Request: fold
Amino acid sequence: MECNVGLVEQKARVLAGLALIGVGAYYNSKPLAAVGLVPILTGMLRWCPVNAAIGYNSCHSKTGNYGR
Reply:
């Protein structure tokens, strides 16, 4: 899997996922909290299948080695 999620987008995804989990916990909504795992996982892996499907790449590394 080649990196297609940049560092700024990674941080935004993880924060959005944590927010969804927090809102789901506040309102006692397990499905909403479960949906919050998706942006966290895509942010941590730095690969998103939706970005890959539409050809969007915010990762500025040309080698695809996750910015290392």
Notes: The mean pLDDT is 91. The chain has one domain: 7-54. Residues 7-54 form one domain.
